[in-house]
Amino acid sequence: MATFVYRITSYAPTRRDVARCGGTAVPYGTREQVSAACVAAAAGFALDDGADHLVIDNPMPEGFFSFSNRLAWRRHGLAGLFPPDLSGYHDGAHVPLGTGLGLLRAMLLREGAWCRLHAESGFFLHVGERDDIYVGGTRPFAEAAARARRLGLFVESVERSPYDTGLDETDDQPAADGAFWTQLHCLVAERGGALLEERYVANAYRWHRLTSSSQISAARRALAPRARLTVWPDLTEDIEAVRDAVLRSERLALLVEQAPDGNFRQVRVAEPWMGRTDAAHPQIKAGPGCRAALVPMEPAERRPLLAGVLPDADGVVRARWRTNRTPADERRTFLGSLRDGDVVTGTVASGLDDVGVHVNLDHEWGHGLGFLRVPEMSWEHFESVDDVAPIGRRIRAEVLHVDWQRECVSLSVKALQPDPWRRFVDTHRAGDVVTGTVANSVPFGVFVRLAPGVEGLVHIENPVHVENRVHIENPVHLTESADLGPAGSERTVVAGDEVLVTLLDVDLESRRIRLSLGGRTNEAGPEPT
């Protein structure tokens, strides 16, 4: 057991704004530099200990910080460290110090992967949920701590790491020994087939459809060391039954599909919309040779036919898989509590140019989960996102959709506001003459604001009077003038001018209003394209 334990951070340990879970204390723009400094500091501790190899403990490619599929683009930070099939990345694997430091970097960058690292000497490295590192061993590391401080990091002595193995909650399963495989052979013979779930690391699965003794033997030879094995009823060809189960499901489940060529499709979190058949491309494929199943994810819902953990070559089960809830588990639970139409509050955290803004929802695990797109910010026209949703602004919004795959909650502020278009249509009709304010000019006409959030277009081919046509000059910039009027009696308007217009056509569905300048018209010009 480690006697000397240190916590390393890039921020002062006294900062209270990072005490809450679910967030990050390191700005995205400086994360690379901070990670490099932390890796250098950790390397100093390891070299002072004399550790040249590290042992991987409780590895996962995702599911510590997040389950979002946005983390998969670099194979969760494992690209370049392990082969594509992740062989060598398993519980109990021995890796060189350089590979261990590469894993540390991936964890600090929050690319998805997480594991504990330790050496036979008792030295260990743990990455925490608040951008902190816990390092320790059986000897003091005064020199290594001093070097870390010279790198600009904060180092403090602590009693123990919160990821100490003594704090693990485990679900000890029996060994997948000879008796396990004998039972599996009997199940397959009785049922005609079974689905073998191989959890080779935490939150990552391989699937084996077993219908014969030879397939069982082949699957057994291909299993990763210390994998957790779970046996489920066989896949079904009744795709409609699977779709119905997905539509009815209110629990987290994995959708497992096998193509006619025998390959398994990517396992996804099954959401009700995946069961719909009215979409152009149904998410659950049907056809000859297609099979599928819905596998529960929640521990309380998992009732397999058989389960066990692969022992080491000497027959001893050394894997102790943690069942402690991770920040990602907590975030997923929070997402599961939200429903379309719920009203939430939060603070604008960051923006994506003209796409939208990220919102920290007012919940312990709501950091960065909300996303407010530009069209959902306001009914009224605005020039810049900073005008309506600047960083730091408090907002109240309606939940439009919860995206489990991207771990994102789509929000709408304007959904909680009266629709100005509907209110305008309820009180006006074609032929009405109203007063508006020139909003801006474009090459094909002038937009006139008729009410807050409602604008109509005076098109250049719409007549002002029976015998006269609209004429526009210099229509590009708001500050430039637009000349609207009959030949020989031009009228110049600029943004902000009040004008009298006639409603030619009001289309609520497409949100378009065609206007004619002036108080009367005998004919409508062609609709703008």
Short recap of the structure:
The protein has about 525 residues and is of the alpha+beta class. It folds into 4 domains: about 5-165, no CATH class; about 180-325, no CATH class; about 330-415, OB fold (Dihydrolipoamide Acetyltransferase, E2P) (Beta Barrel); about 430-465 and about 475-480 and about 490-515, Nucleic acid-binding proteins (OB fold (Dihydrolipoamide Acetyltransferase, E2P)). The chain contains 9 helices and 28 strands.
Strand order of the largest sheet: 3-2-4-5-6-1-7
What is the residue-mean pLDDT, rounded to a whole number? 85
- What is the percentage of strand-forming residues? 25-35%
Rounded to the nearest angstrom, the distance between the terminal CA atoms is 75 Å
Strands, total number: 28
Report low-confidence residues grouped into runs of 5 or more.
462-483, 485-489, 521-529
What's the tally of helices? 9
Description of the structure:
The chain has 529 residues and is an alpha+beta fold. The chain folds into 4 domains: 4-167, no CATH class; 178-326, no CATH class; 330-416, OB fold (Dihydrolipoamide Acetyltransferase, E2P), CATH 2.40.50.140; 429-465 and 475-480 and 489-517, Nucleic acid-binding proteins (OB fold (Dihydrolipoamide Acetyltransferase, E2P)), CATH 2.40.50.140. The protein is built from 9 helices and 28 strands. It has helices spanning 31-49, 97-108, 142-150, 178-191, 213-222, 239-248, 327-337, 385-388, 420-427; strands at residues 4-9, 53-60, 94-96, 114-118, 124-127, 133-137, 154-158, 194-201, 204-210, 228-233, 253-258, 268-269, 291-296, 306-309, 343-352, 356-361, 370-373, 394-403, 408-412, 433-442, 445-451, 454-459, 463-465, 468-469, 482-483, 492-493, 498-507, 512-517. The strands form 7 sheets. It has a 7-stranded antiparallel sheet with strand order 3-2-4-5-6-1-7, covered by helices on one side. A 5-stranded mixed barrel has the order 15-16-17-19-18. The longest helix has 19 residues, at 31-49. The relative contact order is 0.09.
